Every structure is written in structure tokens, then in C-alpha cells.
Amino acid sequence: MPMNAGDIEKLIRKGIPDAEVHIRDLAGDGDHYAAEVIAESFRGKTRVQQHQMVYEALQGNMGGVLHALALQTSVPEK
Amino acid sequence: MTAINDFIDNEVKTNDVVVFMKGTPQFPQCGFSGQVVQILDYLGVPYKGVNVLADDDLRQGIKDYSNWPTIPQLYVKGEFVGGCDIIREMFQANELQQHLSEKGVPVKGAA
């Protein structure tokens, strides 16, 4: 069952409460999205660690139901 | 440690640059794997491609090994560098070239 943008956003927010999340639907087929996640809690972490935080928030959907999520993570400008 | 974990560990430690991908460098079978291969070819970096489609245990084992849910996965000198998004972002920011040079991996066309 593909995921919709709202589900992805909710999961990321639940896992990373201070995250600002922007989801773009790339293909309209429910499993190709781009997500930009900006969160203070990313500060000081490597990109890999930041992406892993988002994947953990997605509770195992990533790589399964969710085939492609082009992810961009950053910290808010001060 | 399972056999598949030993296999992965050995590949990661004995190859300076190795990418676990879907398909082979000559015939990538997924757009994301193809992108990483394109970047490595453009930089002229010698690397080894390991086709995870050849063995389901490998396909799952690599995700457990790195705690990373997707393929492709790039390793440089035994260290997980990232998946397709991160490699593309690093490449565009010239960070990948720097990272490789710092690790003593020859890079052609390093801007």
C-alpha cells in the first residue's frame, strides 16, 4: 500500500518533533517522493546520521513500501 | 557474525572503494545505483561493484551491516559514505572529491 505525502510528513514530525518538513511528490505513484527536512536536532551530525534519523522516524517503511525518497537534510540558518 | 556479514566485512575492508548496488557497473539495474556509478566513473575512481540482486541474504545483510535501508551504498576505505542522495550532494559540493583525496584515493578531474 503506497504512502501519501501526509503520512510521510506525520511520521517524520513524530520522530523528529522540531523538524520542518517539505514533501514533493515526484511521480504521483505513491512511492517516489522528495523530502526536505530542516531540524535543529541535526546540528553537529553528519549527513549519514541525519538521514538515518529520518529513516528511523519512517519506522521501517523506507526501502520497503517507500521505494524512493530523495532526501535532503539541513540545519536551520542561525 | 553471520557468513553474509563476514563476506560484506571482507569486501568493505579489502577494497579501497566498493559500491553495493543493484546490477553491475556495466549494467546498473536501478537509476540510483546508476547515478553513483556515473559519478565514480566521471571521477575516474577505481572501484568494485557488488551486485546485491545476486543474493537476497546480501541484499538484506548490507542494510543491517550499515543500518541503512536502501541500495546503493558506497564505502571508502572501510567507511560507509552514503547512499545515492548523499553521494550526489557531496559530488556537487566537491566534498566527495575532497573526501576521496583525503583518503588517498586517486581522483581524476578533481575541480
Automatic annotation (TrEMBL), chain A:
Which branch of life, at top level? Bacteria
User: A Pfam family in this protein?
Assistant: BolA
**UniProt cross-references to InterPro entries, sorted A to Z:** BolA, BolA/IbaG_stress_morph_reg
PANTHER family linked to this entry: BOLA TRANSCRIPTION REGULATOR (PTHR46229), BOLA-LIKE PROTEIN 1 (PTHR46229:SF2)
Q: Which family does it belong to?
A: Belongs to the BolA/IbaG family.
Please report the name of this protein according to its UniProt entry. Answer: BolA family transcriptional regulator
Automatic annotation (TrEMBL), chain B:
Keyword field contains Metal-binding? yes
Q: Which family does it belong to?
A: Belongs to the glutaredoxin family. Monothiol subfamily.
Identify this protein by name.
Glutaredoxin
The organism is: Pseudohoeflea coraliihabitans
Query: Locate the Glutaredoxin domain: which residues?
Result: 17-81
**Keywords (A to Z) from UniProt:** 2Fe-2S, Iron, Iron-sulfur, Metal-binding, Redox-active center
Q: Which residues cross the membrane?
A: none
